[in-house]
Request: fold
Amino acid sequence: MKVLHIHSSDHTGGGGGTIAMERLHLGLREAGIGSEILCGKKTTQSPYSTQMPKAGKLKGLETFFKKFTRPLGLNDIHYIGSFRTKQTKAYKEADLLHFHGTHGYFNYLALPGLTAHKPAVFTLHDIWPFTGHCAMSYDCDRWKIGCGQCPYLDTHPHVERDNTRLEWKMKNWVYSRSNLTIVALCSEIRKQAQQSMLNRFFICQIPNGVDIQVYEPLDKKQCRTLLGLPLDKYIIMFAALDLRQFNKGGDLLIKALQKLPEPHKQNAVVLTIGNGGEAIAQDIDLPVYNLEYVRNDRLKAISYSAADLFVSPTRAEAFGLVLLESMACGTPVVSFGVGGVLDLVRPGLTGYLAEVENADDLSYGIAELLENETLRRKMGENGRRMAVEEYNEEFVVQQHIQLYQSVVQRFCGYSDQSLNPLNAMGRSPETYPDF
Reply:
């Protein structure tokens, strides 16, 4: 089997979606599955990734479309090159397409043509596929009824004009003519997808995985020494691709840390990973050690292991890969109960769940864990156990392989049910596996 991953980039110098896609790609190759990447931007020398075709001679027409569609609030439909995907060698040789989001580099109007000839899986790394423009809707659920009157036009990807109802209708039209199997990373996103225009498709849940051999508990003192961190202070960690993004909640973290009891402030420092750490440091009256963006997995594992607790003040999360990485390293988490966090942070077991948007409660959770070393250690052990038993990367790769096999067989209409992997799983051949 040959799987073609379609994504905006082919490297890990990005957010959780890119990292998860590359890990899956490499895991599939290790498992003996042919896996390649077709990307909007190729930045590596990997022979297994290809850049998506450009508009070519139609570049002028693409520029013309962009000039008019962007101000109208219509995303990505100017990418004419997406319709040339069929001409690529990678597409022709693929047995199955795996879309990892499409916005920012791909024209979703090309989906019907591409999925008419190849079975396809679409992973929801955010909710953009079923909204009128936004990747994160926060407290808005107008995507259930067709959008329009959008309260969050500035939310990524921002739009200048509210044509969210029109774009919602265009996506709905596209899906009515497409052949997709949807993968949600967490139970909350799966529930939302089932209430959306995507409910016409089968929707399963497969989480991101973590390499438990790389992300593992390491000696705390050694890790702190390697990073030049104090040995006699509490270390509170915060990580994101861009720490300044509104949805990552840096402002809520600042408020929470400001509300900590003075003894805690005097005995704590903050460790940040990600772009924009200097902006956070300016508003926190605690010492801040900023490692900036870290790509190396081992260095990240060292950082998680050096910390006493990981704080994720996120407002929206399709999964929460950094939370899982922290737990795999035995470091408990304090976060808000949104999106994928609800699956990962189990109150009293793997961390503390604060009331959404409540900086006081977030501060309380941080203080509670700092004050109780026994509780931190127990939560850390539980988090590590959860990562090993439920989110092991090898297990997640096998879940994808099983899904791919069932999707390909259904697409090809195999009648020999002895070949159907669903039978081997003890399930009815009339239903997809529910991972």
Observations:
- The mean pLDDT is 91.
- The radius of gyration is 22 Å.
